[in-house]
């Protein structure tokens, strides 16, 4: 014979089937937190897409338009003969340092096959130059072709990333700078990785602060490693030759 179940008083039965009020609140809080985390994840993903992809799309288009607006067309005289500018190694013309955020030159790097011509503008702050105009010129450093250090900065990722492929450069590679009337062809001489505070790399004589320059240098600086601002990747070069734009195009750009 089975033993009949013990009957609970009505009040006891109600207490056993009712969830504690604290548990309901906890479940609700967990649900809200979960939804917030999902929303935060979606927003973060959207920000990353904007930062790592869309700023490049927009930056490349804007920088290409800036170059077009410079009006650096090759004069018809340069199209005579074979179109190759004759290298000159005498005293080059040097333009005056322009006002902040003024675009005054372009940079082309033959090693970076497929990369567009990039504008070079005065200043290196992010809001008015690097994020919106492309490559920035350290104010107070030499101008293209000038004795001293023509020092430049550019993003390695985002906003068109003009220096994204900087680690591909090799000693001897040409770096071709153009102003309205003049080509300046520099050659890479060295690379190094430094800390952000090592401003010696943009001294008039790179890495030798206080020394009077006698040569015409170029320095490119960008963040290192990729997707980090912990260090700086730096490329140094010296002027090989210059040529008037009216004489043609540097052979390094003609393949």
TrEMBL record:
Region annotation Disordered: where it falls in the sequence: 77-99
Q: Which domain of life is it from?
A: Bacteria
- Membrane spanning segments where? 25-53
Keywords attached to this entry: Hydrolase, Membrane, Transmembrane, Transmembrane helix
What CDD domains does the record tag this protein with?
A: Sortase_E
List the NCBIfam families hit by this protein, alphabetically: class_E_sortase, sortase_fam
What is the protein's name according to its record? Class E sortase
- Source species, please? Cellulomonas xiejunii
């Amino acid at each position: 014979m089975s033993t009949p179940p013990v009957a609970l008083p009505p009040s006891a039965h109600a207490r056993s089937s009712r969830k504690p009020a604290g548990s309901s609140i906890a479940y609700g809080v967990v649900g809200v937190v979960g939804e917030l985390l999902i929303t935060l994840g979606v927003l973060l993903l959207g920000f990353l897409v904007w930062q790592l992809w869309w700023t490049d799309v927009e930056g490349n288009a804007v920088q290409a338009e800036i170059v077009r607006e410079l009006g650096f067309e090759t004069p018809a005289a340069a199209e005579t003969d074979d179109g190759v500018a004759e290298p000159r190694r005498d005293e080059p013309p040097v333009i005056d340092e322009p006002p902040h955020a003024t675009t005054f030159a372009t940079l082309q790097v033959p090693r970076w096959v497929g990369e567009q011509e990039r504008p070079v503008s005065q200043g290196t702050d992010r809001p008015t130059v690097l994020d919106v105009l492309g490559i920035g010129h350290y104010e107070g450093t030499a101008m293209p072709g000038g004795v001293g250090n023509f020092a430049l900065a550019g993003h390695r990722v985002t906003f068109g990333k003009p220096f994204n492929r900087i680690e591909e450069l090799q000693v001897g590679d040409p770096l071709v700078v153009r102003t309205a009337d003049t080509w300046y062809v520099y050659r890479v001489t060295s690379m190094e990785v430094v800390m952000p505070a090592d401003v010696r790399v943009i001294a008039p004589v790179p890495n030798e602060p206080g020394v009077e320059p006698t040569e015409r240098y170029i320095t490119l600086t960008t963040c290192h490693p990729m997707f980090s601002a912990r260090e700086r990747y730096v490329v140094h070069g010296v002027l090989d030759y210059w040529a008037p734009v009216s004489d043609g195009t540097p052979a390094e750009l003609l393949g």
